[in-house]
């Protein structure tokens, strides 16, 4: 949420020495190093535990795309915690393509995040409710009635079980003892086209929250949960995410979990932006793009010499090196959550709660401002429904008229027409206002189609 993220970035940012490797300093990265979902860890036995035993101390940072700074970018995020512990994190990445239609996808992402957090809070307070991150995303999609589209991820701590639901190419990592022990995979229809939520009455091309991937993982004190938009994962490899986060946390050792989460989130967005702007960076995005280009060249080669030349021309930048280089400039949002024992983290819980309350105030203001756009959207949807209904009625009337016309008897039978000479046929057609030119066979057919008056 823009105002809150601006406040966060008013504070000094640490200097991180990690830089993106170039071809000279780093061997070619195996694609297997990119995002992997460890299926064996994504579903684990749920252990019943009091939700107050562990807390998710979270803080986040955001750097909008340089061209979108004025409006705060198109990512939205939110964190929440109760004094009893637990905690949840939300991130939505608005689909930038809607700018070409005069629509701000950032507003859709912000309202989506607002509705998801509101839904999850209501669900957790209802012991008989069907609570869960995926359900929160479903409710949010239903209640976000605006033009636009967005990916979304919700991560929540329930006892010692981390529950998450993700749709699109944002994601999360769980870091334990310096290693990624759980990574969510990107959901894409094809390269660089993620699954995305939207308002169904405005578009048939959106995806449904029911398609979100779900995760459950047994968490431990000391774990870091890193949630990011694709601006992070397109520009920083997992092992570098771990290294940057650990270095940032070490720099504020003893300052508490909230300070550690804040430092790590800032450090990660800083490194991601640096890589995104580095034309020699061998980023995860560049590695994947190289794969895609290689596949397109191989497919073109199968079509013959001309197809191969065309593919090489379109990928000239990678012909000499065999690969694409550079990061992907985008909005970058990172939320870092530190898992701690609740009874030892009262100050950190209070700090996270203050952050949540500040963000909630800004979100409430945003939601009120969005009411006008929601009303406009409702009018557009109603008008579309009326137009669709009118068109349906018109089509039905036309079909009924066609059927009625077809049911009318012919004025002249085929046998009678066959006995007529050409002059008679032309005279009858002329009397009925029909064309009289053409071959006799066509004239007989035309007269045979004349229906008798009822």
From TrEMBL:
<keyword id="KW-0460">Magnesium</keyword>
<dbReference type="InterPro" id="IPR036457">
    <property type="entry name" value="PPM-type-like_dom_sf"/>
</dbReference>
<keyword id="KW-0904">Protein phosphatase</keyword>
<feature type="domain" description="SAP">
    <location>
        <begin position="417"/>
        <end position="451"/>
    </location>
</feature>
<dbReference type="InterPro" id="IPR003034">
    <property type="entry name" value="SAP_dom"/>
</dbReference>
<keyword id="KW-0378">Hydrolase</keyword>
<feature type="domain" description="PPM-type phosphatase">
    <location>
        <begin position="60"/>
        <end position="339"/>
    </location>
</feature>
<keyword id="KW-0479">Metal-binding</keyword>
<comment type="similarity">
    <text>Belongs to the PP2C family.</text>
</comment>
<dbReference type="InterPro" id="IPR001932">
    <property type="entry name" value="PPM-type_phosphatase-like_dom"/>
</dbReference>
<dbReference type="GO" id="GO:0004722">
    <property type="term" value="F:protein serine/threonine phosphatase activity"/>
</dbReference>
<dbReference type="InterPro" id="IPR039123">
    <property type="entry name" value="PPTC7"/>
</dbReference>
<dbReference type="GO" id="GO:0046872">
    <property type="term" value="F:metal ion binding"/>
</dbReference>
<keyword id="KW-0464">Manganese</keyword>
<protein>
    <recommendedName>
        <fullName>Protein phosphatase</fullName>
        <ecNumber>3.1.3.16</ecNumber>
    </recommendedName>
</protein>
């Amino acid at each position: 949420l823009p105002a809150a993220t601006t406040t966060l970035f008013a504070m000094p940012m640490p200097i991180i020495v990690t830089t993106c490797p170039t071809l000279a300093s780093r061997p070619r990265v195996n694609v297997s190093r990119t995002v992997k979902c460890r299926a064996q860890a994504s579903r684990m036995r749920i252990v019943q535990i009091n939700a107050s035993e562990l807390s998710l101390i979270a803080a986040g940072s955001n750097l909008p795309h340089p061209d979108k700074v004025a409006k705060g970018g198109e990512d939205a995020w939110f964190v929440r915690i109760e004094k009893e512990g637990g905690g949840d994190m939300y991130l939505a990445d608005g689909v930038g393509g809607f700018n070409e239609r005069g629509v701000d996808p950032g507003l859709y992402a912000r309202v989506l995040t607002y509705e998801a957090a509101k839904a999850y809070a209501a669900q957790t307070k209802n012991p008989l409710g069907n609570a869960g991150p995926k359900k929160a995303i479903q409710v949010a999609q239903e209640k976000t009635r605006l033009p636009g589209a967005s990916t979304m991820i919700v991560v929540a701590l329930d006892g010692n079980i981390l529950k998450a639901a993700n749709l699109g190419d944002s994601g999360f990592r769980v870091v334990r003892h310096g290693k990624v022990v759980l990574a969510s995979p990107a959901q894409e229809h094809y390269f660089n086209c993620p699954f995305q939520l939207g308002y169904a009455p405005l578009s048939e091309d959106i995806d449904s929250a029911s398609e979100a991937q779900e995760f459950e993982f047994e968490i431990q004190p000391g774990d870091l949960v890193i949630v990011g938009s694709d601006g992070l994962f397109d520009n920083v490899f997992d092992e570098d995410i771990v290294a940057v986060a650990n270095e940032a946390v070490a720099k504020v050792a003893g300052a508490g979990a909230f300070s550690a989460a804040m430092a790590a989130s800032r450090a990660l967005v800083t490194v991601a932006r640096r890589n995104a702007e580095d034309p020699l960076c061998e980023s995860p995005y560049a590695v994947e793009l190289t794969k895609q280009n290689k596949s397109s060249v191989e497919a073109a080669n199968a079509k013959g010499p001309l197809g191969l030349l065309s593919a090489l021309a379109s990928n000239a930048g990678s012909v000499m090196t065999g690969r694409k280089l550079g990061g992907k400039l985008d909005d970058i949002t990172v939320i870092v959550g530190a898992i701690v024992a609740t009874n030892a983290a009262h100050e950190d819980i209070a700090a996270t709660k203050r952050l949540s309350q500040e963000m909630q105030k800004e979100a409430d203001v945003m939601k009120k401002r969005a009411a006008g756009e929601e009303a406009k959207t409702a009018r557009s949807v109603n008008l579309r429904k009326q137009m669709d209904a009118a068109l349906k009625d018109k089509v039905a009337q036309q079909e009924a008229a066609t059927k009625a016309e077809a049911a009318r008897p012919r004025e002249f039978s085929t046998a009678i027409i066959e006995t007529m000479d050409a002059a008679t046929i032309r005279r009858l057609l002329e009397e009925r206002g029909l064309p009289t030119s053409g071959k006799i066979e066509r004239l007989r057919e035309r007269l045979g189609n004349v229906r008798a008056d009822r």
